[in-house]
Amino acid sequence: MPDSPTDLRSAFRSGRVTPTAGLAPGFAQTNLIAVPQDWAYDVLLFTQRNPKPCPVLDVGDAGSRTTMLAPGADIATDLPLYRVWKDGELADETTDVSSLWRDDLVAFHIGCSFTFEHPVAAAGVPLRHVEQGSNVPMYVTDRECRPAGRVSGPMVVSMRPVPEHQVALAAAISARMPAVHGGPVHVGDPAELGIADLAAPDFGDPVNFEPGDVPMFWACGVTPQAAVMASRLPFAITHAPGYMLITDTPDSEYVLEVPDAR
């Protein structure tokens, strides 16, 4: 039986470090970005103006290390890997940020495409990065997000190779889950997103294509980290790309019901 979200969070708290794709199937995963309270409105406005890459599922009170998405979890210890940012530069990667957490930090929990991977896989669509035991590849695009106050930056996308005959199926399943990025933003030629080389992702790992695979690109919750860099936020704590918070919330809660046409 797969590990439960509680078991996995306990393992991460004890030092296990692994990308979370394919773990706890059936439960939502989230991206994390925590910023000082005096930047929180700008970040919130940025997410509202860019809901495709930044769909917000929960926002914490200043200083809080809890979330309604995973009651009992400590978001400063229960992710497998964190990033610490200072003045827009990556200052550290660590498995525990409890000593760095501040009373003025506001945490944003943003929907993650790992959440729709379970129903996509259940429909028979292969997930190459899961098959190959690697992190999903992510790329900074040339598509600028709509700026908000002091926050701006480019959209980041995740990429999954999908057999050509299953592209429409993967698109349709993910489109029913807009709270976790929804349908793809692009299918096919990566150059149309300003991506020069699929073998050299900006985050995550390269993935091998099988014959007949087509690259599909989804908006990615690492976009706020690109904004941290572009906007030179004085301080921020985020997840490391691909190392998410595994919540107790079933992924089915984020599936839009299709009206009965009868």
TrEMBL record:
The keyword Lyase applies. The keyword Repeat does not apply. Its EC number is 4.2.1.-. Gene3D superfamilies: PSTPO5379-like, PSTPO5379-like domain. One of its GO terms (molecular function) is lyase activity. It holds the Pfam family D-Glu_cyclase. Keywords: Lyase. Belongs to the D-glutamate cyclase family. NCBIfam families: PRK05463.1. This is Putative hydro-lyase SAMN04490239_5822. It comes from Rhodococcus koreensis.
